[in-house]
Amino acid sequence: MKNFRSASSPKPIQIPIGNSQVLTAEIFGKFPVSKNSPSPVICIHGLTGNLKNFTPLARDLVKQGLTIITYDLRGRGQSSKPQIQYSQDLHAKDLKYLLDFLKIEKANLLAHSLGCWISLAFGKNFPERTDKICLIDGGGQLSFKRKLSSLFMIQESLQRLGKSFPSRETYIELAKKSSIFSSWNKNIENFLNYELEEIYENDSVQYRCNIPIYVIDSELKSMGGAFKPWHIPLQILRNPIENFRIFNKNKILPYSQIHSPVLIIQAGKYNFQKGDELLPDAAINIFKKN
Question: Which domain of life does this protein belong to (predicted)?
Answer without folding.
Answer: Bacteria
